[in-house]
Structure formats: structure tokens, C-alpha cells
Write a structure and sequence with these properties.
The structure is a homodimer.
Chain A lengths: L1 E5 L6 H10 L3 E6 L2 H8 L11 H12 L5 E3 L5 H11 L3 E4 L6 H4 L3 H25 L4 E7 L14 E6 L2 E6 L7 H20 L2 E7 L2 E2 L25 H11 L3 E4 L5 E6 H13 L7 E6 L2 E4 H14 L6 E4 L17 H5 L8 H13 L16
Parallel strand pairs in A: 1-2, 1-4, 2-3, 4-5, 5-8, 8-12, 9-11, 10-14
Antiparallel strand pairs in A: 6-7, 11-13
Helix pairs in contact in A: 1-9, 4-6, 6-7, 8-10, 8-12, 10-12
Chain lengths: ~375, ~375
């Protein structure tokens, strides 16, 4: 099968490309290096240096014998994107080519407009390219559990059947996102759902929780193939921040009360989920939604796990509660369904002590590159 | 009070500007002439010639003694928009500056991207300009009843309280729009609702049904002040199409079975609703939604009313059912609430025979300008 990875330079895009190519698929990647430019401009470059895509593609070919052609360009540039579709004829695609950071989207006007236009125009371009070149091409879009917010009722996978005054209607599950980034990830889903109804495109939307992990089977041989590891306040995740703080000997910074509950998953599970989705495509006209995570933690629980894992490595880890820079519920009901991918056969990994310690050791190898100034929150909302 | 009308050249924008200025408010208008350019390019110019905004502003000053300053520019151009806010200091604004046509949004890739970026960037720019210059400025945005689609349960005004497995949550009412245009009008509302929660802006969203009417009290003295009257397949409404077909002696074209039910209102009621909203602003942080229509008809009922009104004027009106160019339910449940504006004091006008005949007479005065070739649908979805 031929799969196109849009946003193939990113934290998930590059490991996905290697993984699928090792499974014997033909894979091509597209990226405009937005994330690298933003990290450069905002002084929050990744902990571990990352060769450019052509270089990584050559390294991967040397390790695996698999070729991954690289197209440097912008998914928002429609003539460029259509040409890639016409040349490569993908059977399926994974759409990671979005601005991925909540704090970035809340920095100011420029970043807000970039987030809206990039995330919606890229998605609309993908839909039109599929419609113009091959309506059967299965679109797998990465979403986020953050689109749901923290409603006071159970979160279902994509849809909600509402009974109201004796009548029934199934709606797309209503979204109450907590950042502009998360809102655009609800809106890209609305675009995809709309064109499923109008043009019968095939779509799977994977609403992920925060993903953790640095090394995959494909990258283990050469750290220049590792996934991008951001630990800063803009592009870093909460777990990456805690791992770096633990190694740097500064307190883990829990925002607010720390009762914020989210669903997490291992990078290896993301790869497996994407492959399961591609191997079992949505039907024509189907907008299929999976909630993609394997276990839930509060932020405080996550901090405790990192502290305990660090203790065995001789790290003296402290925890500090900071005023929350975000407007979000710090204690809330959270009961999201996530059975769809398990029923397709997902074998989950869990965030155990060994996994945390393996990540801490990678961070320790690069501790001289840690810049503690880029960890504390600069953006509030 | 000082009110800024964004999209002040449009079918609703210009009558709103005149109406509010006659009520004694200071009014300024902003427009980039998108609608005029598109009508020129697509060969679907309005039935009655429309002087440019500066000219109309001069005519209005001559008639009424009221000055309406004109700013020609694009709401998507943020430095321009911010400057207008800084110079004019509005207490409230009416945001009409969106691409307003469902068929336009479904024409092709270029028009789809323009609809998405114009409608969402204009709205985001308005929000940021309010946040930067005066957080108290009340945003009145014109929405459309079309955002709801035709669900099988009652349509409430903006919100839906869902009871699910013994727990309760109030959501923004879930939307299932039937065109990309309508989708962007749900998405601009999602943006406004989000920033109400984050920044405590004040917003009223007026989800209108199709509006009819050509002449208002303000324009009655001079037809060069009349509202833009489009009757074509792209920017025209179903009622305008029927009126022109009745006068031109060609059959009224009902799409499909004609059971599509919508809520309609008179242009004069739109003006009253906008004024009521401005006079009773939403609270800080409140995203207030009104469903703005006064009566519902099926398309077939509308055709019968035009036929009957035309008969008294000596017009022999036939009705013809065309294959539906749109993907939409042609028979459906439709029970939308619309009590909010009535409770603020709206005195509705109804689509009676006299109103239809007055419109038919205006069309008759311009019958030599009717181009029947621009009436039949060119865009399908």
C-alpha cells in the first residue's frame, strides 16, 4: 500500500513514516518545517539535535534498506499538494500537518491566525486533493481528546445519541475545547464530517491523548532517528517537562491543583493505532472517530510517577504547584470511552516505571543541553 | 452610541447603517466590496443598480442629514481593522463581513478556501481588535438558522441541555450544516463562544432565517438607497428567485420535492432585531444566541404564495419542480425555538399578500434588466 505522511517531520510524523515503511508499505513524507522554524524563533529547540528530513531519510535507508521520498512544501499550498497526490497516488494518508500547540495558538494575534488558517486550510486542501485525484484515498487525521473539554457526562467516541422531549437524534459529540489550537482540531473534524456527508470521502479521526516516548524500534539504532523531543512551555508536553525537570534537579511544575485528568498513550501505540486505522479503512462517506489513549492520569499522579521512577535512578525529585497559566477545570468528571481501537486489536503499552526510567536515561544523556529557562510558562490564558 | 457596521455595503449592512444612523447613533461602515467583485466576475449583478458606498453615503446625508463615514478595506486585514477601531471607538459592532452564499462556497477549491479563511479570519480579527482596544465593545454577529441543519429533535436557541446516563451537561447546540458556507457560520460562532469563555468578550449571535424585502423606511425616498437585490443562483435567495421568475413569465423553480422548511423574516425585522440586540448587550463572557425568524414555510408554500400574489397583478405564474442541486432533506421535522427576540420586544412583520405584491412591483419596474440565464442552478452538491 502507498501511504502519504503529511507533517512527516514531526514528533509523530517521522516515527510513523519509518514504522510504515518497515511494514513494507511505500511511504512518502511532506513537511514545511513549520515546527522547526517556530522552535528556532521562540528559542525552544528540541533537547536532542534533529537532522533534516533528507538526512534522516538517508540514515533510515542505510539502517533499513527502505526509501522514504521527502517533499519539502506546504500542505496549504494547493498546487504543490495536488502534484504530490498526482505523482504518488496514495491509498491512504495520515494528516499530521497542523500547528500542534495550545500555548502557541494563544500567544497573540499572529499565532492565532496562523493556527486557524494552517489547520483548516491544510485540511480543506487534503479533502479537495482526495476529491480531485482519488475519492477512495482514506484520510486518517490526528485529532486530540482535548476537543471534548471536560463535560459533566461521559465522552463517547465521536457521536452522542441525544433523547430530547421524546425524540432522538445522533449528533457529532459536542466539543468544548480549552484552547484555540484545540478548537481548530474540532473544526478540522467538522470539515471532514461535512465532506463525508457531501462527497462520500473516507475518514478516520484519531482523537489522541498526550503521547509520550522518544525511541521506537525503528529509531533505536541511531539517535539521529529519534522523535523530536520538546520540553519547553510552547511545544513540550507535561510529561516531557517533568522528565527534564527531574533530570535538571528543579521541581516538577504542576499547574494549579493538578487534578486535570487526561488520557495518555505511548508513541508505539500511536503507531499501532495509525496502522490499524489504515489497514481497516473507513467506508465511503463514513466519518469514523476513535478516542486514542490507553490510561488516564491526573497531572499530580503523573508527577508522582516521575518522582518515584527518578528516585531509583538516584534523582531527588521535588514537586511544586504553580498558578495555572491556563483557564481550565482543575478538578472535574472525566469518563471517556476508548474501546474502538482495542476492538481492532490494539495491544496497549502502559506508563510503567521501566518506561519512565528509559526516558529519563535518554534525557540524562543530553542533560548538558537542558535550558531550564524555556520550561516555565510564558503564555497565559 | 457608536456602532461599527462590518460588511456595510451588503444586503443587510447598508440598510442597518441607515436605520441606526436615523435612530441617532453614530455609525461607520467598513466593506471590501467582495460581493460586488464576485457578482461582476460571475455575471450575476443585482437587478437594481447600486451606487458605490461613498455615493450612497452622500445620498443618505442629503436625504436624512445623517453622516455615515465609509472605510473601504478588508476586515481580514488586521492593521487596517485595528486602526478603524482605534479611530472610531465603537460601543458595539455588527459583523456582516462574511462570504454569505452557500452555492459560492461549493463552487470549487478557490471559493471553498476563500469562504473558510474570510469567514474565520474576519471573525478572529474582530475578536482580537475588541480585546486590544475595548473589551466592553459588544459584538453582534449575524449567523444563520442553516447552521442547525434539520435535526429530528427541537432546535433550541443556542444551547441544548443533554441528560445522559443520569448526568447533565449543557452544550452549545450541535450543528449539522448543509453547505460549507453554513459550516463556517457554525465555526465563527465556535470562535466567539471560545473567546467569551477565555477573555469574557460580549457576544450576540443572531441565527437568521432567509431575509426578504427590498425597501425600508430609510430607502423609500430614493431607489439608489435600496438594498442589493440578487436573484441569481449564487447570491440570490429562493424568494427573490421566485419574484423575478413570476415577473419574467418563467415557471418558479422549486428544488426537489419542495418540502424544505425554513424560518423567514422581513428585512425590517432584521433591522429591529439588530437594534434590540445592540440596546440590550450581552453580559461580559456571555455568548448569547437568538434564533431570528418570525414564521416558517416550505419552499412549495412559498411558491404558492408568490403565485397567488402575482395573480392579482395579472401575472400568470407556473411552478416547476427541478432536480435538487443540493444534498438536503426535502421532507423533515422542523421545530426551532424563537422566543428570545420576541421577549426583547420584537413586533414581527409577516409575509402577506401586500408585502409580496409591493416586492413584485419593484421587480416589475426593472423587468427589462432581468437576465433569466442567471437564475438556473450552476452549482450542485
Amino acid at each position: 500500500m502507498r501511504f502519504l505522511i503529511l507533517g512527516g517531520d514531526g514528533y509523530l510524523g517521522w516515527p510513523t513514516a519509518m514504522y510504515l515503511s518497515r511494514q513494507g508499505h511505500e511511504v512518502a513524507v511532506v513537511d514545511n518545517y513549520f515546527r522547526r522554524r517556530a522552535c528556532l524563533e521562540l528559542n525552544c529547540e528540541p533537547l536532542i539535535p534533529v537532522p533534516n528530513l533528507q538526512h534522516r531519510s538517508q540514515l533510515w535507508e542505510a539502517v533499513s534498506g527502505c526509501r522514504i521520498p521527502v517533499h519539502v512544501g506546504d500542505v496549504c499550498d494547493y498546487p504543490f499538494l495536488r502534484q504530490v497526490f498526482q505523482d504518488f497516488h496514495p491509498d491512504g494518508l495520515v494528516h499530521y500537518a497542523e500547528q500542534p500547540a495550545a500555548p502557541y495558538s494563544m500567544m497573540g494575534h499572529r499565532e492565532a491566525i496562523l493556527t486557524i488558517t494552517n489547520n483548516l486550510v491544510s485540511t480543506a486542501n487534503v479533502i479537495h486533493a482526495v476529491n480531485e485525484t482519488n475519492l477512495d484515498c482514506h484520510i486518517v487525521k490526528l485529532g486530540t481528546m482535548g476537543v471534548y473539554g471536560t463535560p459533566n457526562i461521559d465522552i463517547e467516541e465521536g457521536y452522542l445519541e441525544v433523547e430530547y422531549r421524546g425524540r432522538k437524534q445522533t449528533f457529532l459529540y459536542p466539543k468544548t475545547p480549552g484552547s484555540l489550537y484545540h478548537l481548530t482540531k474540532a473544526q478540522d473534524g467538522d470539515l471532514l464530517y461535512f465532506y463525508c456527508r457531501m462527497w462520500s470521502i473516507r475518514v478516520t479521526d484519531l482523537n489522541q491523548g498526550p503521547v509520550y516516548g522518544i525511541v521506537t524500534e525503528e529509531s533505536a539504532a541511531d539517535e539521529r532517528l529519534y522523535s523530536i523531543f520538546n520540553y519547553d512551555d510552547i511545544f513540550g508536553t507535561v510529561l516531557n517537562r517533568f522528565l527534564v525537570q527531574a533530570v535538571a534537579g528543579v521541581p516538577l511544575t504542576v499547574y494549579g491543583k493538578g487534578g486535570q485528568t487526561r488520557g495518555y498513550l505511548n508513541l508505539k501505540d500511536t503507531l499501532a493505532c495509525v496502522e490499524l486505522a489504515l489497514q481497516n479503512p473507513a467506508a465511503p462517506g463514513e466519518y469514523r472517530v476513535f478516542n486514542q489513549f490507553v490510561e488516564t492520569f491526573t497531572v499530580t499522579e503523573l508527577a508522582h510517577r516521575v518522582r518515584d521512577a527518578g528516585r531509583d535512578l538516584g534523582l531527588d525529585v521535588k514537586i511544586q504547584n504553580l498558578p495555572n497559566p491556563r483557564l481550565e477545570a482543575e478538578e472535574h468528571y472525566y469518563q471517556p470511552a476508548h474501546t474502538g481501537l482495542l476492538s481492532l486489536g490494539l495491544q496497549p503499552h502502559y506508563l510503567d516505571r521501566e518506561t519512565l526510567q528509559a526516558m529519563l536515561k535518554v534525557v540524562q544523556q543530553h542533560r548538558e543541553r537542558i535550558d531550564p529557562d524555556m520550561i516555565l510558562p510564558r503564555v497565559t490564558w
